[in-house]
Design goal:
With 322 residues, the chain is α+β, with helices and mostly antiparallel strands. 25% of the residues lie in helices and 34% in strands. It is built from nine helices and 18 strands. The strands form four sheets. Strands 1, 2, 3, 4, 7, 10, 11, 12 and 13 form a nine-stranded mixed β-sheet that branches. A five-stranded mixed β-sheet has the order 14-16-17-18-15. The chain is globular, with a radius of gyration of 23 Å.
Length: 322
C-alpha cells in the first residue's frame, strides 16, 4: 500500500509573490503550486495568463487578496511572435489550421499596421477565452463547436512595435511588443494585424513582461521557489501595500487608525483624492485604502486587526532571523 500523503499545515501568509509563470501551466495551476509551497491559507491571482503564455503573474496571499482587483485593472506589457500566412481556429499554435495565404509583407506594411493599431481600437473577444455568455465560458462553447455572437470591446493599445522576426526557412513571422489596457487580447491583436497585412496570422509565443509597475526582472520562477527553504520563500513576498504604490498616502495616529479600521470616516486637512493608501503610525502598519472628499477620509478596502497583527509579527520574526 502507498503511504498516506502528509497533510500540509496551512498558515496565514500575507503579501504578493511576483511569479514568472512557466509554459504549459494555467494561472490557477501555478497559483496552487505556489500556495502549496508557501503553505498559505488564502490566495488569488491578478489576471489570467493562458497555458501557452509565460511571464509576470502577481499572486496575492492573505490580506493582499483584498487589493488584487487593482492589478486586474492595470495596464500590461507583452511580447509575442506571430507566424504570418497561417490562420488557426484558436489564434495560436494549438488550434487547427483553417486558412493559409501567401505572404507579401514589406517594412512599410509593418509600419502601417503599427500606426493603425496604436491607440483606441475595438476588438471582438475570441471564442477561446474565459468570458462568459449566459453563465458559460466562451471556450466551453468553442469546444462544442458552437460559435456565439460577441460584442466588440473598446480597448487601448498605449504602445506598439511590429517588426520582422526570425522564422524557420520558408516561413515569415513578426514580433509584437505592446503595452495595453485591461481586457485586451493579444491573440486577437495578432490575428487582426495579420488580417490587416492581408495574409492572416496566429501567435506562436506570448510573454507578459510587465503588469502595472511590476516587471519580469522582479519575478521568481516556480523552480527557484521549490529549491528554497521556507524562510527564503517568505522573503520573496512583497508587502500588500506594494499593490497600492501609486496611491496618495495618509498616516493616522493610534486613535484615528482604530476608528478608521472600524469603518468610520475621519476628518482632516487632506486634499481630495480618489485613491489613498492609509497607514497607522503606532505601530507603522498598512490599514487599507480610502478616498478623500471634502476633507473626509472615507474607508474603502480594509485589513482587519488580526491580519495587521499577523503581518507585524511576521515582520518581527523575519528581522530576528539571522
Amino acid at each position: 500500500m502507498n503511504a498516506p500523503r502528509t497533510r500540509v499545515q496551512r498558515r496565514p501568509v500575507h503579501g504578493v509573490l511576483l511569479l514568472d509563470k512557466p509554459l504549459g501551466l494555467s494561472s490557477n495551476q501555478a497559483l496552487q503550486k505556489a500556495k502549496w509551497l508557501l503553505r498559505a491559507e488564502k490566495a488569488g491571482h491578478t489576471g489570467t495568463l493562458d497555458p501557452l503564455a509565460t511571464g509576470v503573474l502577481p499572486l496575492c496571499f492573505g490580506a493582499a487578496t483584498k487589493f488584487s482587483q487593482l492589478h486586474l485593472d492595470a495596464d500590461k506589457t507583452y511580447e509575442a511572435t506571430a507566424r504570418l500566412g497561417v490562420k488557426t481556429a484558436t489564434g495560436d499554435a494549438e488550434g487547427d489550421v483553417i486558412a493559409e495565404r501567401p505572404v507579401n509583407v514589406t517594412p512599410e506594411d509593418l509600419a502601417r499596421v503599427q500606426q493603425q493599431f496604436t491607440g483606441p481600437i475595438r476588438q471582438v473577444p475570441p471564442m477561446h477565452s474565459a468570458l462568459k455568455k449566459d453563465g458559460k465560458a466562451l471556450y466551453e462553447y468553442a469546444r462544442e463547436g458552437v460559435e456565439v455572437e460577441r460584442a466588440p470591446r473598446d480597448v487601448v493599445i498605449h504602445k506598439l512595435e511590429v517588426t520582422e522576426a526570425a522564422a524557420p526557412q520558408g516561413q515569415r513571422a513578426i514580433r509584437i511588443a505592446a503595452t495595453v489596457s485591461k481586457g485586451t487580447y493579444i491573440r486577437t491583436l495578432g490575428e487582426d494585424i495579420g488580417e490587416a497585412l492581408g495574409c492572416g496570422a496566429h501567435l506562436t509565443s506570448l510573454r507578459r513582461t510587465a503588469t502595472g509597475d511590476f516587471g519580469q526582472a522582479q519575478c521568481v520562477t516556480l523552480e527557484a521557489l521549490e529549491a528554497m527553504d521556507e524562510e527564503e520563500r517568505l522573503a520573496q513576498l512583497l508587502p500588500a501595500e506594494s499593490l497600492v504604490d501609486g496611491h496618495s498616502r495618509v498616516t493616522l495616529g493610534a486613535e484615528d487608525a482604530a476608528r478608521f479600521l472600524s469603518g468610520l470616516r475621519r476628518r482632516g486637512g487632506w486634499a481630495d483624492a480618489a485613491e489613498v493608501a492609509v497607514f497607522g503610525s503606532e505601530p507603522h502598519a498598512f490599514l487599507g485604502t480610502a478616498h478623500v472628499a471634502a476633507g473626509e477620509l472615507i474607508p474603502g478596502r480594509l485589513l482587519n486587526p488580526i491580519e495587521i497583527q499577523q503581518i507585524l509579527l511576521n515582520a518581527q520574526q523575519t528581522e530576528a532571523t539571522p
